[in-house]
Amino acid sequence: MTSLLTYTFKNLPNTSKWAVQFFVRPLSCSSQLRAAPAAQTKSKKTLAKPNIRNVVVVDGVRIPFLQSGTSYKDLMPHDLARAALSGLLTRTNVPKDVVDYIIFGTVIQEVKTSNVAREAALGAGFSDKTPAHTVTMACISANQAMTTGIGLIASGQYDVVVAGGVELMSDVPIRHSRKMRKMMLELNKAKTLGQRLSLISKFRLNFLSPELPAVAEFSTSETMGHSADRLAAAFAVSRLDQDEYALRSHSLAKKAQDEGLLSDVVPFKVPGRETVTKDNGIRPSSLEQMAKLKPAFIKPYGTVTAANSSFLTDGASAMLIMAEEKALALGYKPKAYLRDFVYVSQDPKDQLLLGPTYATPKVLEKAGLTMNDIDAFEFHEAFSGQILANFKAMDSDWFAQNYMGRKTKVGSPPLEKFNNWGGSLSLGHPFGATGCRLVMAAANRLRKDGGQYGLVAACAAGGQGHAMIVEAYPK
After folding, report:
1. Distance (Å, whole) CA 423 – CA 107
2. Is 459 annotated in the active site?
3. Which has fewest Cβ within 10 Å: 33, 69, 163, 172?
4. Of these residues, 312, 459, 460, 469, which one is catalytic?
5. Distance of alpha carbon 166 from its chain centroid, rounded?
6. DSSP labels for 208-254?
């Protein structure tokens, strides 16, 4: 059996060079996957800094996250973003003319609405005098929208910013081949019949082959799922570990949904269809059923499957961010302070999904906190194997010393404080919108459980990552 495992491991393509350090260290967290909720914590120091404006989130919403190809399939991205903005206006009753600036994140852009923030804002009824722009940073696009807003407020440029994100995977742009595009552009410029006929004579059937989009790295041509499979192998994360974690995510999400804890979700009346009121990807299964699925990427020995991966998702989110003094002047009771944040980047080949490992110690040091100070962890779950590999990397002195230039490990998050209301595996992951969901989940958990600090972290394509500290607003 050992020789077979060794053979299988060695024959996984491009297994990373730290693999042997972790292959003999199996993850032993199965019994913790259903741990009890965190106990109420005592109040700690505030992270306010002298001469820097406090930035708060008044509230945030999202329309239900749906599996692609379902109720949102006939819409456009700006329809979803507009619905999130409208939901935010209804939730907060903020006067539209008070908003100084709007920023949205997105990944796969619809060419007709490339600045989707502006189109959605106009559609939602914001003033045409309110500027808006769109950012993209893969899975942390909404995070970038938020932190850009934080910078604009902290610097005194603006007082009120709306930040959000959107993704519609049901209808992604599919391009003609380059040869076909070139011919069409040249035909458009042709002035005579002879020029047109000359161009048409060069047409070949293979010009009609489309260029399909792929969730793959441009620099490596490797799909993210393939990277996740290699990462899981490198850190000796078993198929059972991954399935157990995925089951945990779906079970906790179902519990949170049933108990009404996902209060950031606002209903959306889909034009010509039903009113959507809840996420539709939450589907607790059984380990036995999950074990029947075949590997999705590395076949036949891979461990990443459809059951332990996040699914293609349509959705949008939006948050109302203000300077604290402005929020109080308008009569709001903010939900949380948005504190220190960092962005990191690593090798997109072997460390594509390790953003949380690199970002977490940096943001903790910046804020003067330790892992023990954090009451609520909200990490983006791209794959079960990605989450569990990050846990192992964060809990390894060897990895910290050899790859991060650190003397000691930061330690892995305790599961009883980690993604307690589900995560991207179960709730869904609209690429451009997840960051706002993470921050609102942290803020709402802190308010419910009496905690003070939340830590949000996520990986992203390109080997990048983000982490942010959220501090509960005093009740």
Report:
1. 20
2. yes
3. 69
4. 459
5. 11
6. G--B---SB-TTT--BHHHHHHHHHHHTT--HHHHHHHHHHHHHHHH
pLDDT at site 208 = 86
pLDDT in tens, 136-194: 999 999 999 999 999 999 999 999 999 999 999 999 888 888 888 898 998 899 999 99
From CA 178, how far away is CA 209, in angstroms rounded?
10
Q: With beta carbons less than 8 A apart as the criterion, state whether 149 and 101 touch.
A: yes
98-125 pLDDT, tens digit each:
999 999 999 999 989 999 999 999 999 9
Which of the following is catalytic: 138, 139, 224, 296?
A: 139
CA 1 distance to own-chain centroid: 38
Percent of the chain at pLDDT above 70? 91
Q: Phi first, then psi: what are they for 122, rounded to 5°?
A: -65, -40
State the residue for tokens 């002879």. 194
Residue that the structure tokens 């804890």 belong to: 261
Which string of DSSP letters, residue by residue, matches 375-436? SEEEE--SBHHHHHHHHHHHT-HHHHHHHS--SS---PPPGGGBSBTB-HHHH-B-TTTHHH
Which two tokens mark 263? 């209060």
Q: How far, in Å, CA of 164 to CA of 134, rounded?
A: 9
Show the tokens assigned to 88: 């935010």
Work out whether the CA dihedral 343, 347, 349, 355 comes out positive or negative: negative
Pick from 452, 262, 458: nearest CA to 376: 452
SS3 assignment, position 21? helix
Catalytic, 139? Answer: yes
Q: Which amino acid is at 26?
A: P
The Cα–Cα gap between 110 and 75 comes to 11
Bridge partner list, 231: none
